[in-house]
Backbone:
């Protein structure tokens, strides 16, 4: 049974950028903790078809950081595992699979715009949601797989046990399942409550994953802590008892235990810190607005959808959002309907303050926008607490 600890109010589809003002779908975004499995999940799941369809706008290749991240990941996996067959679940625009040979790599991607792209690029792509029926079909058509990779996708799947069972079904005997998703520990440590939105049906701890995978006969043998997406865990799992367990597994479990991730009280404290973050953010934005400053947001992220809708931040405070993604430009942000423009169009000398909606790309953005800071511009972030950034 899930026990609710945080309510972020009425929220729209986080990546549902709009062409025009229109009646939007809203749902109640609240989060709970399951005492038995220790899994943190949304209290109410949004239907997958509403979020992942042919107008999905998140392109993983938009960021240099992510392109480099996936190229390095692919290189290391090839070197250490030498898989004969590779499959990715949630392949987006192909940012990971393009590092593998077209001959022995297949992809699964429910957003048709992306599935079409990777198919056209020569990678056999199943344009479907991941489930047991699809796993059976792939085993029949393509055989079992030596490497099953998935980045920022497993956490999207409400029926997570079914998703893991489906992976187990098509994983070859010595196969490895590698998946990475935002880390619950990092979210708690960094106060990054904007990791919570419709697509993140679960925010995984290693503790919960170990409990869930064990139930179906998979075992975690290695954990890597990553910087991407605001702090993620990369999990390596195999059929139970088939590999030696690395010390990184015990290390992560101990770290999570000492941070209280197995206790409901930790989440209640986190919920208090979220309210404080909201108050402080509104205070600082209102202050700069009252000084006549022009405030924009940098990065039209799904995370900022949570923040703007939870804090009630509209165009009264933020003039517009700048984002490099062409499919977001010219649109309105979900729920609060702030316009999105390209950086070329909107990130100029007239901007005084830029809220870092894409705080997870802080390093890349600050490097790129050195001049803005040198000219007296100010970045604002809420992670790990409300802070002004005046220098790189
Ligand atoms: P994400 O946090 O959901 O990964 O989304 C990051 C968004 O930020 C994505 O729409 C691209 C955008 N972005 C920029 O606009 N400029 C940048 O320099 C970077 C790194 C990202």
Residues:
């Amino acid at each position: 049974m899930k026990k609710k600890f945080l309510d972020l109010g009425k929220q729209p589809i986080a990546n549902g950028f709009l062409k025009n003002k229109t009646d939007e779908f809203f749902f109640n975004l609240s989060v709970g903790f399951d005492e038995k499995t220790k899994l943190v999940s949304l209290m109410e799941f949004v239907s997958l078809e509403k979020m992942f369809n042919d107008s999905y706008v998140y392109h993983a290749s938009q960021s240099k950081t992510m392109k480099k991240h996936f190229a390095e990941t692919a290189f290391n996996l090839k070197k250490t595992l030498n898989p004969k067959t590779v499959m990715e679940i949630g392949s987006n625009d192909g940012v990971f699979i393009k590092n593998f040979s077209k001959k022995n790599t297949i992809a699964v991607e429910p957003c048709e715009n992306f599935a079409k792209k990777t198919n056209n690029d020569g990678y056999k792509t199943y344009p479907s949601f991941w489930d047991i029926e699809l796993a059976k079909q792939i085993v029949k058509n393509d055989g079992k797989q030596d490497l099953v990779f998935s980045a920022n996708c497993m956490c999207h799947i409400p029926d997570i046990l079914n998703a893991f069972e489906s992976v187990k079904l098509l994983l070859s005997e010595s196969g490895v399942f590698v998946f990475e998703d935002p880390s619950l520990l990092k979210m708690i440590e960094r106060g990054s409550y904007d990791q919570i939105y419709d697509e993140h049906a679960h925010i995984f701890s290693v503790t919960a994953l170990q409990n869930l995978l064990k139930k179906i006969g998979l075992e975690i043998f290695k954990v890597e802590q990553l910087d991407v997406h605001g702090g993620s865990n990369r999990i390596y799992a195999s059929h139970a008892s088939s590999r030696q367990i690395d010390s990184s597994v015990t290390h992560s479990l101990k770290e999570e235990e000492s941070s209280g991730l197995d206790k409901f009280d930790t989440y209640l404290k986190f919920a208090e810190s979220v309210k404080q973050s909201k108050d402080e953010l509104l205070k600082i934005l209102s202050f700069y607005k009252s000084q006549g400053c022009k405030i924009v947001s940098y990065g039209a992220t799904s995370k900022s959808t949570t923040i703007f809708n939870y804090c009630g931040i509209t165009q009264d405070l933020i003039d517009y959002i700048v984002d490099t993604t062409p499919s977001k430009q010219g649109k309105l942000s979900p729920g609060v309907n702030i316009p999105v423009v390209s950086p070329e169009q909107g990130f100029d000398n007239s901007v005084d303050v830029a809220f870092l909606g894409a705080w997870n790309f802080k390093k890349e953005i600050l490097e790129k926008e050195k001049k803005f800071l040198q000219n007296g511009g100010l970045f604002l972030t809420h992670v790990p607490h409300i802070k002004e950034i005046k220098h790189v």
The chain has a mean pLDDT of 97.
